[in-house]
Write a structure and sequence with these properties.
Layout lengths: L4 E6 L14 H5 L7 H7 L8 E6 L8 H16 L5 E6 L6 H9 L2 E9 L3 H6 L6 H13 L3 E8 L6 H11 L6 E6 L2 E2 L3 H7 L8 H17 L4 E4 L14 E3 L6 H18 L6 E5 L4 H5 L4 H7 L4 E5 L7 E5 L10 E3 L1 H11 L1 H7 L1
Parallel strand pairs: 1-2, 2-3, 3-4, 4-5, 5-6, 6-8, 10-11
Antiparallel strand pairs: 7-9, 10-12, 12-13
Helix pairs in contact: 9-10, 9-13
The protein binds iron/sulfur cluster.
Length: about 350
Amino acid sequence: MAKRKLIPVFLPQGGCRQHCIYCNQKGITGETSLPSEYDLWDMIPKKTDETWELAYYGGTFTSLPRSVMLRYLEFGQKLRRKGRIGSIRISTHPAYLDQEKISLLRRYGVSTVELGVQSMDDFVLEKAGRDHGKGEIIHSITLLKDAGFTVGIQLMTGLPGQTPNSIFQGIRELLPLRPDMVRIYPLLVLEGTPLAEMWRHGIYEPQTLVDAVSLVGDMFAVFCHYGIPVIRMGLQPTEELNFDSNFLLDGPFHPSFGYLVKSYLKRKQMEMLLERHKGDVRFLAFRNDLPLLFGDKRSNLRFFEQERRCAVSEAMLSRGDIALAPFDKRERSNVLSILREKEFFALYLERLPYWSELCI
Ligand code: SF4
């Protein structure tokens, strides 16, 4: 899939007929109303070409009043005709897609649809005020895939009533539908939402950061193993979304959540390699992977250094692979063992209790 540069346009809860208990798009984006055409022109960078994609986020695009939806699609089409973008992306809700809307999206050059799936568990979806069930999710992904769209799905962790088992059962049901990409968002408690009231009354307790990182890490490993890219983990920090504001009340927020997840999995990969050798060691990896091997504030190395001396060095390896060599730098070419990333994910899944039990 060719990588596109996105021009994000936020339609804060535009078209949403329900109020999901955790959502406050107006607070997250700082936008309070739908942008006019004048605003849209302001958002387009000066020099763009067909490698750019206009992305309408933050609402239920296909449930907007038809005239509004057409206005945004026509704006996108104008840009496409001028060669200023190559395609349009929208995000929407699984209950508001049918054959007629899909044809309309196609006609106006929409190529990617991101669906707010959140969970495949009807009980969890109902508690979250989502207004749709598993049936609508399967139906809408199938319609989109059959019509040739690139389909992204958004999943959440930490929803009320959700368990790791329900998450992994859901992923097992999603894999055969072949989504093209995934975003994973741990649930945060935001001011002005029903969830904030539940949290104040002690009815909802958020995930800890440690739990969220390991659970999202397990989900990431499953999707990677099945070749489905995870393009985002955790919400992007904004002026409004940080613990210094009065808006983010609680939950596993970290400005580099995705990095924490990836370095957590790197530690697991390093652990597997260490099972094969005793004594002091040196980990070797591709240059860009080194920050993941070190971990946040060198936490991965500090973890292993409780038992033995460890070091990390750059080597000519493929991205994701890790090799083990003697600790002495002069002997680093004497590789003791190598664990390719692909093999690591397969082994990791074999050991993942709620995944291996489901696959029996
Ligand atoms: S459908 Fe999406 S944007 Fe609309 S209220 Fe729910 S989470 Fe928010």
